[in-house]
Amino acid sequence: MSTIEENTKDSVDAAVKEPGAPEKESEKIEPGLAQGSIIVSFVIGLAIALIIGWIVFPALLYSEKEQPFDFSHEVHNDLVDGCESCHYFRDDGTFAGVPKLWLCRDCHEEVQGGTADEETFVYEYVWNDREVPWRIYSKQPDCVFFSHAAHVVKAEMDCETCHGPIGESDSLKPYEENVITGYSRDIWGKSISGLNKKHIWESMKMDDCADCHKEAGMESSVQTKKDACFVCHK
Amino acid sequence: MKKGHEHKNPKKYGMVIDLDKCTGCGACMVACMAENNVPFKKDESNKLDSITWLRVYKLTNNKPYPDTEICYLPRPCMHCEGSHGHSPCVSVCPATATDYSTETGIVSQIYTRCFGCRYCMAACPYHARYFNWWDPVWPTGMEQMLSPNVSPRMRGVVEKCSFCYHRYQLAMEKAYFEEREDLEEDEYQTACTEACPAGAIVFGDLNNKGHAVYKLKSDPRAFRLLERLGTNPKVYYLSSREWVRRQGDNYLEHEETGKARQKVHH
Known about the structure:
The structure holds two protein chains of two kinds. Helix content of chain A is 47%, strand content 3%. Chain A has a two-stranded antiparallel sheet with strand order 1-2. Chain A has helices spanning 2-17, 20-28, 31-61, 73-77, 102-108, 116-126, 148-154, 159-163, 185-188, 206-215, 229-232, and strands at residues 62-65, 175-178. Chain B is α+β, with helices and mostly antiparallel strands. Chain B starts with 12 loop residues before the first strand and ends with a helix. The longest helix of chain B is centred in the middle third of the chain and has 13 residues, at 165-177. Chain B has a single domain (13-265), classed as Alpha-Beta Plaits. In chain B, strand 4 and strand 5 form a beta hairpin.
């Protein structure tokens, strides 16, 4: 007990004695200058915080993942009859999404062009009868219900409106995965703030869906005056 | 986008359950659980812990033999309209996790939004809402058999009957693909309706003159549960027995069931 008391006493004494010298110095500093340095350090602190929040954090938040191999839409669009020969609707109105192996097999029983990507595809997947584990850029969380028929057939929207120019691309862009949620970066979009959005496909968050629905006059929610939760959720 | 959304006639999905036909077999409960990924436990006897979106209750007239009578009453979520969609649960939810759709009349529950305060359970006079005290534990291999059309739930959230809303979503998707706007009556039916061997559960759009429920809801045998609270439920019951109808609400001795109902109808 006593040692602790002594120690505290010592340090209290030190605290009283020590700042004696600097105190005099700070008296010399003009009040305007002190305020100035507070503002400067605030601005620097803010800048650091913003850099961490807007640049460092997003860079850490997303990890780039490779697709199993590269795929060129450009090459294939010339060979087949439009997008719907690979991305088609089933008879019950559901959308088949990314094509399964059976759609490729007729042409890819053997290697045709001889690129490394095609070889990977044929030798590892076609010959082993393995489905390609594509990473889906637009994949929404499990609790979301999305209907291609409602947008493509009923509302007559183009694929590009929501997906951007993927359908014309010659090679696949990297897939960026949010390391916390596991969702694709295409959901939130590149811009963290969501401001200066020029195309609908730049992000596809809940509000992006709901805002377009509201514009189209869909406001069935009693709670939000936007669209009801059960339109897009299941 | 070339075509916007044209305003259609809003729908109001509801149910009419004929208690004269119900045998209490429980097929509706089973079908509901299988359809909606409802978790279950080895011991389901603790009713504070078990989850039954649709529950069959047993009513008795409390008379001694030989006058004893019983009646079974299946209870889904009533999808209360309240006044203008302000059903009891929707009004109290601080998280906007439950919502009322003016397009379908269905009360939704979004599990990812719910944080488990259970105000809605306290507000619901029908005990139609259930809390997940535990994460669901499926028998080995059963996760593979869950329906991808219904979000599974986790510990700490409230869940309830959705009138099999995913079936509406899929039916609408097919309709859009076939360039139709409206559904036929049989295109959207709940799992319990389809499972009932007695045909006691009838489901459809209460606003649509062509649907069976439209006529049945005005049947002289029809009543709703706790109607006088003003919850405006969308589930109607039919019973030819006065003692059953009386159990649907709290009546004074001199009150007759049909008349008391008239008061809140306007």
